[in-house]
Specification:
One of its GO terms (molecular function) is phosphatidylglycerophosphatase activity. With about 180 residues, this protein is an alpha/beta fold. It is about 40% helix and about 15% strand. The chain contains six helices and seven strands. A seven-stranded parallel β-sheet has the order 4-3-2-5-6-1-7, with helices on both faces. The longest helix has 20 residues. It is globular. The two termini are about 25 Å apart.
């Protein structure tokens, strides 16, 4: 059962995932959750570190696309300054949004990685879609009310998953 929630990698922050690491694994596009993964849920402007990371992906010709359960209007407002394409109402933990994003970019599952901060939505959807997945630590400790419910259950799932996969641990990069 815990296999559904097992990420390919667990990396401390999205910003430490380099284009060269992605390319070494054959990854041609990055899909990312929005809140507490790409930006803090309460700060849509992003950080200089985010902008530098986004530029490094752009320079390496690796598209970045937001795949979020949020509404079209919420994501559009949040990423307006970042000028990112997105898939709204992704229906994670289902693979629906990831599949729509792959179709949009004409990519196959082995060419994509989904990055997110939640096992129960982002990683479960990644595994269902058959794409690589990276679990990152949330950017900030607070969450929207609806995410707080997931975090409660996620603690148990994480404990069980790590018990079943003792070699899985937090890394600084994909190549650790």
């Amino acid at each position: 059962m815990m296999k559904a929630f097992k990420p390919t990698w667990m990396v401390n922050t999205i910003y430490s995932i380099s284009p060269s690491q992605l390319k070494s694994h054959g990854i041609r596009a990055v899909f990312t959750d929005l809140d507490n993964t790409l930006i803090a849920w309460n700060n849509p402007d992003g950080t200089p570190e985010l902008k530098a990371w986004m530029q490094s992906l752009k320079d390496a010709n690796i598209p970045l696309l937001v795949v979020s359960n949020n509404s079209h209007n919420r994501i559009e407002r949040a990423v307006a300054k970042l000028e990112l394409p997105f898939i709204s109402r992704a229906l994670k933990p289902l693979a629906t949004g990831i599949n729509r994003a792959m179709k949009k970019l004409e990519l196959k599952p082995h060419e994509v990685v989904m990055v997110g901060d939640q096992l129960l939505t982002d990683i479960a959807a990644s595994n269902q879609a058959g794409v690589y997945s990276i679990l990152v630590k949330p950017l900030i400790d607070s969450d929207q009310w609806n995410t707080q419910i997931n975090r409660f259950f996620e603690k148990y799932v994480m404990k069980q998953m790590l018990k079943e996969n003792p070699t899985l641990s937090w890394q600084e990069s994909l190549n650790d």
